[in-house]
Design a protein that fits this description.
With about 190 residues, the chain is mainly alpha-helical. The protein contains six helices and no strands.
Length: about 190
């Protein structure tokens, strides 16, 4: 069987569907990377079932907490809880920076998680601070919000760009409409 090579001009002349087909054909077969299709479906079903059960179970738990938690509560290890949370946040931000400088894809989930933790930090600071200190908490939240948006929005934008570069979606497709690839059907 003779080798065929496409020139840059030929690749540039391919339509979107032809590029998708070329990428599909050049991709490593999923069978080399993943369990068999039946096992993959069972794993996916198991994980999504657990996620669904936990989400549904949290609804009555949250209602129960709303009805039974006291309005005021003395907390032990208050400083350790906040300092521990901030240490985790610092480590996640530092890890995100290191991964970003090294141009590693793992930066995407660490940046997203750091952004979510910043939102949580701001929320709990404002909700759990009373008196004159509350204004400092609000000011801190105002400073943290743009950083959180940057940390969450950047990875989401990168996901869209990577999907568009792999011809999985049009660059204008909203992120929530970009499907996961059907790994159990690829390369079999």
């Amino acid at each position: 069987m003779g080798e065929q090579t496409l020139s840059d001009e030929q690749i540039a002349g391919l339509s979107e569907s032809q590029r998708r087909e070329l990428i599909r054909r050049l991709s490593r077969p999923a069978g080399e990377l993943l369990p068999p299709p039946g096992a993959l479906r069972r794993i996916r079903t198991f994980r999504l079932t657990i996620l669904t059960v936990v989400a549904v179970a949290l609804v009555p738990w949250t209602v129960y907490l709303a009805l039974t938690l006291p309005a005021h509560y003395e907390v032990h290890s208050w400083a350790a809880a906040w300092v521990g949370f901030d240490i985790i946040l610092i480590l996640l931000l530092a890890l995100t920076a290191v991964l970003g400088w090294r141009r590693r894809q793992l930066m995407i989930p660490t940046a997203f998680a750091a952004g979510i933790l910043l939102l949580c930090d701001g929320w709990f600071d404002v909700m759990l601070t009373a008196g004159p200190g509350r204004w400092l908490s609000v000011a801190s939240l105002v400073a943290e919000l743009p950083v959180a948006v940057f940390l969450i929005g950047g990875p989401l934008h990168m996901m869209r760009v990577m999907s568009a570069r792999m011809w999985m979606a049009d660059p204008r497709t909203p992120l929530w409409k970009i499907p996961l690839p059907r790994l159990d059907a690829v390369g079999r």
